[in-house]
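User: Hey, my collaborator sent me this sequence without any context and asked if I could get a structure. I don't really work with proteins. Can you help?
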Amino acid sequence: MTHRVDWAKIVDAVEMACDIRDVSLRDVAEEIGIAPSGLTRLRQGKHLSANGLAALVAWLFPKNIPVWITPAVEGGDTP
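Assistant: No problem. I've predicted the 3D structure and written it out in structure-token form, which is a compact way to encode the shape of the chain:
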């Protein structure tokens, strides 16, 4: 079986989390270290980079971050 990212469900999850946490998409982008336009493009059906997706997953599920997602090193790998 193959798997794929369901970007529309990610958008739904982000928007729901924004409502619950009372933050804007711009706030989320700033917190996870990506350009706000990245989340706008995501809402338009475009994709994030692998690192951007990892940062977003970590933000969405802070208590259940998968072990394969690790913090970026300052001055090194960024989303």
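In plain terms: The helical segments are 7-21, 25-32, 36-43, 50-60. You can pass these tokens on to your collaborator as they are.
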